[in-house]
Amino acid sequence: MSFHNAPELALIVPCMNEEPVLPRSAALFRAKFESLIERQMIAPTSRVYFVDDGSADGTWATICQLAMSNDCFEGIKLSRNFGHQYAVYAGLMHAQGDALISIDADLQDDINAIDDMVQRYLEGDEVVYGVRADRLSDRKFKRWTASLHYWLSGRFGVRAVPDHADFRLLSRRAVSMLGQFRERNLYLRGVVPLLGLKASEVYYTRTQRVAGESKYGFTDMLGLSIDGLTSFSILPLRIISVLGLVVFILSMIFGLWALGAAWVGLTTPIQSWAPTGIPIYLLGGLQILSIGVVGEYIGKTYMEVKNRPTYLVEQTTSGSSASGEV
Ligand code: UDP
Ligand code: MG
Predict the structure, then answer these.
(1) Which is it for strands 199-204 and 127-132: parallel, antiparallel or unpaired?
(2) Which of 117, 127, 229, 240 could bridge to 169 as Cys pair (CB 3.0-4.6 Å)?
(3) What is the number of the ligand 1 atom nearest to the C-alpha of 13?
(4) Domain boundaries in the chain?
């Protein structure tokens, strides 16, 4: 393949407080680009887009320096912190290029997998998922909660690829299709398989973060998981209805039995708090839980109805003025 028809690659890198790691990642991304350009797999006009997701440290200043130092770097500054999913989405919507790869800034995703991803793209795949070959770099607890999440996702009908995070290649066509999804509660891992385009997987080993700290605590993971599950299925609502029905039928049977027993003169006095106390707590708990689940969906509908922009761009290194997603 010649330069003439080698695809232009865009690397989308969401960054939140990544000042300690950026210079190192940028150097490696650049070296990777040079090697791919040399092998004529990507066009020389390929770019790395750093998306500053409301960092409080010197991330944006570092991005600006990088953009000045080399044409292959560009920066997009969001007006505040919108969250990882939205930073990736903002990058995808703003970047140019024929093939777009989203990758974390902290080098946990193996940049050598980019070669395979581009190769798959050249062979005609429009979506290439980076899938973790193992989870050895995770702590036991994260590994356990992750498998629980993917198991539940499967039950809930989410077609997410297990052990795939947000390291993936999308063709230009896939990105424009993604732009047609108008949802505010964005869960890219669940939406991308819905595009229905030709997809494949490449396997890589995820390493430890090279510098800085993880921004995803347990509550963020839990939030993403609940969001992912409830954005794709109304099964929890249905479970509540079925549960309500089962409890109702059981109570009817129990009531009839008690009536019948009294009718024929059979008395079964159980003198304890248990027969009344336990159902009260049990049903009380069930009701609160059910209201919570219903509330989760009402909250989602509320967010969707408000239709706020999912991200806002304050400035870019290429100089385009502030704009929001329409
Ligand atoms: N990130 C972001 N916005 C956020 C949180 C994280 O853009 O609100 C970026 C972060 O800079 C990194 C990527 O998302 O490039 C993954 O985050 P992190 O490494 O903290 O997550 P982990 O790998 O620990 O799950
Ligand atoms: Mg990380």
Answers:
(1) parallel
(2) 117
(3) 15
(4) 9-217+308-325, 235-306
Pocket of ligand 1 (CB under 6 A): 14-16, 18, 53, 81, 83-84, 87, 104-106, 108, 209, 214-216
Chain segment 13-40, per-residue pLDDT in tens: 999 999 999 999 999 999 999 999 999 9
CA distances for 263 relative to 9, 195, 254, angstroms: 81, 63, 14
Q: What's the first-to-final CA gap in the chain, in angstroms?
A: 37
Ligand 1: nearest atom to the Cα of 104: 15
As beta bridge partners, residue 100 has 10, 170
Is the model's pTM score more than 0.90? no
Instruction: Return the ligand number nearest the Cα of 14.
Output: 1
Q: Which ligand 1 atom sits nearest the alpha carbon of residue 221?
A: 25
Task: Summarize pLDDT for 282-307 with one digit per residue, the tens.
Answer: 888 888 888 988 888 898 898 889 88
Measured from the alpha carbon of residue 209, the closest ligand is 2
Residues 158-215: tens digit of each pLDDT: 778 888 889 999 999 999 999 999 888 888 988 999 999 999 999 999 888 877 888 7
Burial 137-151 (b: 16+ CB within 10 A, else e): eeeeeeeebbeebbe
Under a CB-based contact definition with an 8 Å cutoff, are residues 95 and 313 in contact? no
Most confident of 236-240, 242-246, 308-312: 308-312
Cα(119) to centroid(ligand 2), Å: 25
Rounded to whole angstroms, the Cα distance separating 193 from 178 reads: 10
Q: Which residue owns the Cα nearest ligand 1 atom 18?
A: 214
Least Cα distance to 9 among 133, 160, 161, 120 occurs for 120
User: Is the pLDDT reported for residue 274 higher than 60?
Assistant: yes
Look at residue 315 and tell me whether its pLDDT is greater than 70: yes
pLDDT at 39: 96
> In this structure, which residue's CA is closest to atom 14 in ligand 1?
84
230 CA distance to ligand 1 centroid (A)? 22
Nearest CA to ligand 1 atom 2: 84
